[in-house]
Amino acid sequence: MKWFGADLDSAYRSGHWQLRVLPASMTIGILLCGGFPATLEAQFGSYSSMVRNLLGSRSAAVFDVRERQLPRSISACEAYVITGSSAGVYDDLPWIKDLMAFLQSARGGPKLIGICFGHQAMAQAFGGSVLKSPRGWGIGLHRYELPAQPYWMDDPAAVAVPASHQDQVVTLPSDARVIASSAFTPYAGLDYGDAISFQFHPEFSRAFAAALIEAKRERYPDLVASAVESHLQPDDCARVGRWISRFLDSDDAARVL
């Protein structure tokens, strides 16, 4: 695999991912696991640019995991965002195996943030399990209750955030607690103390979320109209973005489960 000049296993064995206090200015690694049709990217920009926007002014480096690119060492970045993907974490693909190994070795070091597929990948890597849900597709603006509020969240008021998934976490890792939940997606947000993840998409704008549904309408024709209409309502993507910002800005001493 492409390891930017180093062997994956030897890099993991080097021990460069020990827990440390984050500097005021950090570089975040975006582990890009998916993309969108060219027509959508031409209108709304690349997926990596959406994640960059979610992160604000922070410096970011993009690694296309699908091309078997990963950072030279786990300590190359102070935090990593694992993005969404059309793949399933259970798919027998070499790049998914690489990603799982990376995540398992990264625990306890850089902060980790998972979105959709990234949420599922982290759960699978940390001892949980993921399946294609018998509930089917979850699309449109979904509302999530917040049964717990870690230090980086604000208040217990529910959030409404775009969803676009069929797979779900069905078994929790032993050290995860549920921080966002709905009847459709019981394990929609997880907190590990040193890592957080969400099944939903705070990086999506309302216009993009609606356009993505239209672009994939053949997958769920009976759901399209109501899902697109739901994106006429306000969402809480900016609020979730502030959660992520506070999580990234906090030091290690503040991490509590």
Account of the 3D structure:
This protein has a single domain (8-136, 166-199, 236-252), classed as Rossmann fold (3-Layer(aba) Sandwich), CATH 3.40.50. Strand 3, helix 4 and strand 4 form a beta-alpha-beta unit. It starts with 7 loop residues before the first helix and ends in an 8-residue tail after the last helix. It is built from eight helices and eleven strands. Helices cover 29% and strands 21% of the residues. Helix 4 crosses helix 5 and helix 6 (206-215) packs antiparallel against helix 7. The protein is α/β, with parallel strands linked by helices. The strands form three sheets. The protein has a seven-stranded mixed sheet with strand order 2-1-3-4-11-10-9. The longest helix has 13 residues, at 94-106.
Largest sheet, spatial ordering of strands: 2-1-3-4-11-10-9
Residue windows where pLDDT falls under 50 for at least 5 positions: 1-24, 253-257
Secondary structure category = alpha/beta
Q: Do you know the CATH topology?
A: Rossmann fold
The CATH architecture name reads: 3-Layer(aba) Sandwich
Q: Into which percent range does the helicity of residues fall?
A: 25-40%
Strand percentage, roughly? 15-25%
CATH superfamily: Class I glutamine amidotransferase (GATase) domain
Shape: globular
Largest sheet: 7 strands, mixed
Classified by CATH, the class is Alpha Beta
Distance between the termini: 35 Å
Order of helices and strands: HEHHEEHEHEEEEEEEHHH
Let me know the number of strands: 11
